[in-house]
Amino acid sequence: KKFNTALYVLKRIKNISNKETAKIAYHALMETHLRYGVVVWGGTSALNLKRVLTIKKSAVRCLTNLDHRGSCRPVFKHLTIKTVTAIYIHKLILLVDKLGLPREIRLHNHNTRSSFIIPPVRRRTAL
User: Fold this and answer.
1) How many Cβ atoms are within 10 Å of 95's Cβ, its own excluded?
2) pTM above the 0.85 mark?
3) To 5 degrees, how large is the angle CA 64–CA 67–CA 71?
């Protein structure tokens, strides 16, 4: 609901102002809601992510006056806007780095080719 409201406001702003102002409004209205808690809800079903991505594509099309059937991939790169999955992966990597999960580099004193792999948690379960 917040994304649809932000998309409506973005379309209104685009009609009364220029492209730069609309892009600032996009970052203020839509991107902030998307980034908030994306680590928690980003691992949801593919259908939910597709819904958010569809609204985000509509916003990008609104910003650039792109046809509704045109590809958004080059426009995302041109406007330097990340997709939902790219934001989720970026935030997840930052969280893992912030938490300081053990990596193989901390387990060995010598260089190995897989020194930055995070080891899986092993549990001993008895049947």
Assistant:
1) 11
2) no
3) 85
Write out the chain's pLDDT in tens, 127 residues.
788 888 888 889 888 988 889 888 888 988 888 888 788 888 888 888 888 888 888 888 888 888 888 888 888 888 888 888 888 889 988 888 888 766 555 555 667 676 666 667 777 776 5
Helix 2-16 to helix 46-64 angle (10° resolution) is 10
Q: Which of 48, 45, 46, 13 is CA-nearest to residue 34?
A: 48
Residue 25's closest CA among 41, 9, 47?
A: 9
What is the residue extent of each domain of the chain? 2-101
Any residues with CB less than 8 A from the CB of 82 and at least 6 apart, and which?
76, 90
